[in-house]
Amino acid sequence: MTGPADATGARAPDVTGARPPDVTVIVAVYNTMPYLTECLNSLMAQSIGLDRLEVIAVDDGSTDGSGPELDRFAATYPDTVTVLHQANSGGPAAPSNRGLERATGRFVFFVGSDDRLGDEALERLVAYADEHGSDIVVGRAVGVNGRYVHQKLYERNAPDISLFDSPLPFTLANTKLFRRALVEEHGLRFPEDMPVGSDQPFTIEACVRARRISVLADYVCYYAVKRGDASNITYRADHLSRLRCTARIMAHAAGLVEPGPQRDALLSRHFTWELSKLLLADFPDLPAVTRKSLCDGIAELLDAYYTDALRDGTGVRRRVRFGLARQGAVEALSRAVTEETRQGAPPFLLEGDRAFAVYPGFRDPEIGLDDRYYEVLGESVAGRLATGTTFESADWDQHGEDLGVTVRLRLAVTGDTSSVTVALAQGAMPQSADRPGARRLPPTQPRPRSPGDVTATESAAADGPGTRVLARLPVPAAKAKKGVRVYLDVAGRTYEIPVRTGGRPLPLARRWGETEPHRVAAWPNTKGRLVITTGPLREPGGWGTRLWRALGSLGSERKRSG
After folding, report:
1. Which residue, 222, 220, 223, 190, is CA-closest to 206?
2. pLDDT 10s digits, 290-329
3. Nearest Cα residue to 28 out of 96, 124, 128, 125
4. What is the rounded CA–CA span in Å between residue 60 and residue 57?
5. What DSSP element (H or E) covers 35?
6. Contact 203, 164 (CB under 8 A)
7. CA proximity to 115, closest of 137, 136, 132, 92
8. Which pTM was predicted?
């Protein structure tokens, strides 16, 4: 029997005089060589020390040499590493449960056998848990070899967070430090009949039951590795398997959390992430029976959990796809995915202060999907507005001493354009504009004023409806490099869009006559953005300036004498 904890949270020796380890690391293993070796090396190198560490590795019927490699480590570290061998169970849940049954540490930590830990990870995690009395500590994780790991949770250390008002729902892997007393008190185990996602029910219930959850963000504790052949089980599962497992996860979560804002906050992850990934560019190429089964299954989940608040909080692109799936409009959904993949976003229809993305099925009486699904509700629409912004042409013009450039754009908006206001601005592109799509400006950030007059008139283009924008921008000689940005107000929200030129260069323009000669040129840069360069043709006061002035004067005399 283990003795009581001291002031630091450490356990006193049991009746045999042996002190239990601080942390048990459980490793479920199936065919992960050579990544397994690096994983185990990272565990043996932990700064917490082998005397405070227990490793239980469960070989789930590997056939690639993983089993012998585990036995080699067990022989080298017999007081630290325990290896269990079993027939293949089809997923990581069963081996993880076998590890829990043998664990003796105050805390347990799960590590993927193709992943690895930072050298000080376990020492820091246990110390943080003891300092704050945490039942769960989430250490900062990063992806390796292109593995995606959501980073929002790791902005700062946080001793006490909630599952319902933090980014934690987007970080539901079991690769965390759990107090073993919490696990055993509530009998937490992994569902062994789920081939993928079996860690989520465990993690969600642990987070609901935990008295305190902490985030350790100032040290990289976990390196999540994407294998070179992408053979991680997450990448192997087919669409219908992922749908079935997602339905199980959502049902489990709904059984723990009453309907309302907290449940919405938790399940928003599954609509935004798991279900949305079933309706991506590969959806139209799936067999017809699979597409119908996916729509039927998604419709059941929408009927059960997709509240109006969740619907309105989902971006219009996902919202339309969910709505079409809910209505059983399989062909319209396939067309929406295909057209957006090939052509970009559809035009926006403006009606007063409302904007609608005109995806397939919009106001189709046979589909009967409410307009609310197509409405742009002030959300950021990255890729939508920018994709619909087309550079048509730019020409140099001069009115007296005023040199300028006239830029013509076509915006994929149509309808009542009285609610649209447009501004163009010159200046260095913000870093955010280098990302695809439009950046929604915060309400408190003023929109730059246009340096020239801008008019927007609705017109029909050969390749579809749109609103043409004609803007004249003065070209100040003092500025060397300029970019062009569009600021577009749609339905009360302002978006900043980099102008794409489509590879069209502009001819050189020179400024002659009574003022200093200047060269002005414009070209598309490597990002397809219009770049305007201006500057004196010669340094002021030099012989070149006097020569160009003389040539300019000569030209004027010839015109008068002619």
Report:
1. 190
2. 999 999 999 999 999 999 999 998 988 999 999 999 999 9
3. 96
4. 9
5. helix 35-44
6. no
7. 92
8. 0.74
